[in-house]
């Protein structure tokens, strides 16, 4: 384990959990890399280092029921109240176009009692009407955030419908343009939105996604999001992985608190090194699964398979080495007990990743009308949830299937499933439980 304290910020540490022993001819090395940031707190007056843009869906569907728009205004007001003094912020009205609600003029306001009151007054002008083109909301948020001289740039996006007024390609182009420039939490309110759109936004912009089926709970959720955002202190942290000649990284994925594929997001960072983005950090811990293919070697030989370190870099700014690093090793042995033992952390998170995949595939098969395939996949999900102790996911699954026998994964699809229950399971399918260390 190595750690590093950023002046005035959290102390980062890296721990590696693995079984380094391989049989003769073995080539695949798996490791769980735990990154922890602790002890930063929220120092006095750090607000000038952060900027937040709230994107509120104001399409016509937000008027059905009429309380939904009021709930959205109230939730946004509560989020504004949770801003620290000095934080730059703005509000965007999102329909088939994007419009600045506050402060206007292509800029952000600086939070203080007066600007908070002005912003909440401006929220009263929000009215439902028009279509939905989320890419335009994101591009406007990007322009506003880019104008602030801050390190933490974050968006909060709320939608209640499908992105019907722009193509999937246009939304993807917007996400590609915004990726790495700011992070974004996305929320779907009600049950008329598309889960894969909302989770895709959060995934591309390294934020969180969730469903708020009951609009009356928006205030609670928005307050929690803003409090989390205010706790972020280090932006644009990346896992830098160096590997020796002859090795190949098979995959890198976040496995806690959610499953998130990072393999294809690698950017080169010098000879045999690449960076995998993780977004902004506060006081928290996350786990990553690294799989490396190494050259075959003889018994008794050993090698450094990978070195994982942490760096922080913003566009057009110098990369800062955060100091913390961990080593992944490979040792070839003829001790069968040693080489066949599966590290408990690797086993746990392999199961968690399979659980998320089984849920997604099961729900997709159910929608496609393949009930036998859906039953098999969701039964496997029930089995994995039980083995790993993922009680929250098990409860969500039980709203979609009747569990006959959890240990064997024997289930029956429910004849009728509430749309909110199915969407909640799909949205939260990637949430994992951490292994007890």
Shape: globular
Low-confidence stretches: 1-6, 42-47
Terminal-residue CA separation? 15 Å
The main pleated sheet reads as: 7 strands, mixed
What's the tally of helices?
A: 11
* Percentage of β-strand residues: 25-35%
Overall average residue pLDDT = 94
- Helix percentage range: 25-40%
Q: How many strands appear in the DSSP assignment?
A: 21
Structure description:
With 437 residues, the chain is an alpha+beta fold. It is built from 11 helices and 21 strands. It has helices at 67-81, 113-123, 134-146, 168-178, 195-204, 218-230, 336-340, 344-367, 371-388, 391-397, 419-427, and strands at 2-5, 11-18, 21-22, 28-38, 50-57, 88-94, 98-102, 109-110, 152-159, 183-189, 209-212, 234-242, 248-256, 260-261, 267-268, 273-281, 284-293, 302-312, 320-332, 401-405, 410-413. Strands 5, 6, 7, 8, 9, 10 and 11 form a 7-stranded mixed β-sheet that branches. 47% of the residues are buried.
Q: Any key phrases for this structure?
A:
seven-stranded mixed sheet, alpha+beta, globular, six-stranded antiparallel sheet, about 425 residues
């Amino acid at each position: 384990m190595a750690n590093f304290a950023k002046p005035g910020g959290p102390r980062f540490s890296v721990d590696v959990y693995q079984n380094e022993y391989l049989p003769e001819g073995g080539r695949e090395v798996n490791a769980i890399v735990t990154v922890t940031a602790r002890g930063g707190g929220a120092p006095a007056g750090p607000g000038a280092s952060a900027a937040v843009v709230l994107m509120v869906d104001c399409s016509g569907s937000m008027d059905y029921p009429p309380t939904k728009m009021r709930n959205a205004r109230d939730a946004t007001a509560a989020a504004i109240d949770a801003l620290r003094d000095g934080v730059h912020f703005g509000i965007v009205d999102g329909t088939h176009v994007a419009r600045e609600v506050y402060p206007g003029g292509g800029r952000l306001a600086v939070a203080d009692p007066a600007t908070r009151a002005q912003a909440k007054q401006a929220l009263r002008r929000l009215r439902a009407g028009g279509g939905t083109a989320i890419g335009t909301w994101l591009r406007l948020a990007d322009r506003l955030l880019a104008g602030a001289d801050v390190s933490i740039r974050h968006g909060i996006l709320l939608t209640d419908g499908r992105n019907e007024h722009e193509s999937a390609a246009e939304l993807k182009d917007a996400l590609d343009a915004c990726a790495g420039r700011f992070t974004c939490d996305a929320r779907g309110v009600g049950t008329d939105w598309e889960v894969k759109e909302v989770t895709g936004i959060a995934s591309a912009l390294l934020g969180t996604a969730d469903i708020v089926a009951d609009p009356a709970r928006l205030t609670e959720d928005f307050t929690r999001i803003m409090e989390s955002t205010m706790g972020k202190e280090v932006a644009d942290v990346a896992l830098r992985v160096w590997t020796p000649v002859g090795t190949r990284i098979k995959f890198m994925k976040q496995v806690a608190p959610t499953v998130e594929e990072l393999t294809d997001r690698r950017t080169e960072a010098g000879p045999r090194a690449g960076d995998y983005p993780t977004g902004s950090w506060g006081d928290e811990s996350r786990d990553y699964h690294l799989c490396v293919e190494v050259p075959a070697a003889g018994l008794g030989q050993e090698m450094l398979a990978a070195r994982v370190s942490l760096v922080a870099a913003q566009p057009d700014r110098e990369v800062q080495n955060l100091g913390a690093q961990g080593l992944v090793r490979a040792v070839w042995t003829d001790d069968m007990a040693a080489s066949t033992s599966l590290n408990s952390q690797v086993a746990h998170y392999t199961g968690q990743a399979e659980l998320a995949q089984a849920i997604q595939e099961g729900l997709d098969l159910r929608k496609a009308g393949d009930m036998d395939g859906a039953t098999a996949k969701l039964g496997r999900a029930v089995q994995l949830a039980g083995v790993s102790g993922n009680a929250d996911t098990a409860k969500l699954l039980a709203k979609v299937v009747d569990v006959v026998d959890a240990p064997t994964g024997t289930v029956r699809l429910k004849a009728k499933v509430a749309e909110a229950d199915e969407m909640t399971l799909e949205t939260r399918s990637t949430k994992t439980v951490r292994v007890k260390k």
